[in-house]
Amino acid sequence: MKVKKYVDRGSYLFVAQVIEKEPIERRLEDVPVICKFPDVFPEDLPGLPPPRQVEFEIELVPGAAPVARVPYRLVPSKMKELAKQLQELSDKGFIRPSSSPWGAPVLFVKKKDGSFRMCIDYRELNKLIIKNHYPLPRIDDMFDQLQGSSVYSKIDLRSSYHQLRVREKDIPITAFRTRYGHYEFQVIPFRLTNAPVVFMDLMNRVCRPFLNKFVIVFIDDILIYSKNKEEHEEHLRIILELLQKQKLYTKFSKFELWLDSVKFLVHVINSQGVHVDPAKVEAIKS
């Protein structure tokens, strides 16, 4: 009726049809530079990582005795998930059967996507580990090198701790106990003291030739920054070649590319400078 009313008045009408489109899925093979390095973006980690420049070592305080705890009770749904994840970790060689006198219990942590990650409750063990004081970089020092940059890409390594081996003689200390058996980790497990700084040490060594030039590394996060797109293409290629050579893997869905503004370590970075992420400020206020 309203349409007829306006037509009778001699008004001009323009009819627009709004069509909702499905978001276009980004495909690796369609992205310049990235498409040449598909092996850096596997669907899952391929297995036990190669020996690297750094191993995860566990140094215990003098007189430390093995700690073994009774497994926690888990509801049936968690038991099913436990069996599944144990099988996956075993298939990749990340864990192996153990006869160690050590044994921590298992718990589950809910991830952002709603799924559950199996974690080991290493709180008792962590009290006995000598802290590694390898320095994490100061954020302000890292950001000082960004002056003049305007193009950014951010890489988040996939399950980073599982890409670094535990020193052979320390593997029994990582043991954990479950209803399905006694296991120990051959790669760094989550929630173990010193894991972040040891991985930081590895990434500093791997990326050292490019630090303070066009790369910032913070544990398992890599920020590539450049003055322009042409320069950025070359920087991307260099870092992807490096990851390929080192057999370090990332997740394509978390790879943020060719950005003029990027969020990194609770800051927003662009050609105008570095600013605290407003969303984080609001979260603190609320």
UniProtKB/TrEMBL annotation:
Alphabetical UniProt keywords: Nucleotidyltransferase, RNA-directed DNA polymerase, Transferase
CDD domains in UniProt: RT_LTR (cd01647)
Pfam families: RVT_1 (PF00078)
Annotated Gene3D superfamilies: 3.30.70.270, HIV Type 1 Reverse Transcriptase, subunit A, domain 1 (3.10.10.10)
Gene Ontology molecular function terms on file: RNA-directed DNA polymerase activity
Reverse transcriptase domain ranges (all copies): 90-269
Superkingdom of origin: Eukaryota
Statement: the UniProt record of this protein carries the keyword Cytoplasm: no
Name assigned to this protein: Putative reverse transcriptase domain-containing protein
